[in-house]
Amino acid sequence: MYEALHVAQTGLTAQNHRMAVISNNLANINTVGFKRDRANFDTLLYQTLKQPGAQTAQGAESPTGLFLGTGVAIASSEKLFNQGNVINTNNALDMAIDGPGFFQVTMPDGSTAYTRNGAFTRNQNGEVVTSNGYVVNPAIQIPADAANITIGRDGTISATVGGDSQVQQLGQLQVATFPNSAGLQPMGESFYRETVASGAPLQANPGDAGAGKLLQGSLESSNVNVVEELVNMIETQRAYELNSKAISSIDAMMRNLTQST
Amino acid sequence: MDKLIHVALSSLRQAEISQRVVAANLANAETVGYRADNDRSFTSVYLNQAGGGTEPRVFATTGEQTINTEPGAVTMTGRDLDVAVDGDGYLLIQTADGTPALSRRGDLRVSAAGVLENASGLAILGDGGQIQVPPNRSISIGSDGTVRVTPIDAPEDQPPVVVGRLGLVATPAAGVKRRADGHIAAADDSTPPFDPAMKIVAGALEKSNVNSVQVLTGMVELSRMYEAQTKLLKIATTLDEAGASLMRMPD
Fold it and tell me: Can you count the helices (H) and strands (E) in chain B?
């Protein structure tokens, strides 16, 4: 009886974890470039109560045996990298990637992080930086007196500088793609880190085969679908209720045993 | 003392085991592709007194495991690597000890080593063993289970290449059973052959087949049965006390 209680408890823990994943998705519904997570469940080990093949009588064997499940566990939580909606902002340094690529950002510790959040600005040196102030890689300097900044679909940044009517090319943005982007490790602030599972990044110019196109003046919104998350939330809540119902039912049985005899 | 109390005890034990199966099914109500265990695996043992006595006893004891093979609800997810087996069949997977097993779990992914596996980390077996997926720009799974990828270095106009086909098998004629490691296998331990007629639905997932209404009513029923058996314990005690008081020497 006590085992049954613990089995039901694993269900509560798993649903609780899933609810945390759903809440995180909903909390980030307006986070630019956010990719939603999904919690994957897995059954726990089975316990052998009756071995298959055990003799039940002379010449007769138990054909299937009896195994009792011990509950459920969270197997993994997984990022789903499908494309979010592209929103037009008309801000010159806002960029969205239409395709599978990632922007590369040099973190303060010198390492490279990857992001889908293309809300960029300039810092005091004129470098293109993320909204947290981290420099976008490859570093591109935009002079203070630059006007009419244009970013091509292939990542070329050009502008007119100092009232000159001639357009100058200021740099070339690159994006990184991964053999298995689901294996990237999320590290907060919309950044991802390369892992063994993701594979090594491949740099490419936007517009190259498989890299995705760059859209200037646009941002990629999160790919969270509210309706889907709400349905998942209801489902999770019901599963939670069922498991707590199991706990109260088992408790009632134990109470009955200890009090009525 | 009467043996009635032991008969009640055997039933109480079975109710406890059943309640555990119920709890495990409920805990996995949201596990993708989970197949519920039937929670009533009781059988009876009839003990007759030698020489045809008048005290037959029927004890409840543990029976055989069976799995509920009803299909679970299918939900559309739109993810490229989510597949739901369409109809009465299974995906062939490689378990941790290397043996093949059957699974309805379709939330697939590509491992760090480039092997197609499910979210439990078990490789999917295809027509040529494990399915190796090269670094790619896009991956798709056709309704017959064919996995196609566009390799990452392929030119833009190259059509996707086939890297393998999911091992789809029909439900074995002998039926299926639960193995000691919790996986589903053919009842006769054979590995079913690939069935080219089996289909999958891509971009969809099959949830567990735990029927919550059925499970809840079953749980209530078990609770009541348990109460009835504890009542029997009480009655057996009263009977025994009555018998003992008759035997008592008068003061």
Answer: 2, 18
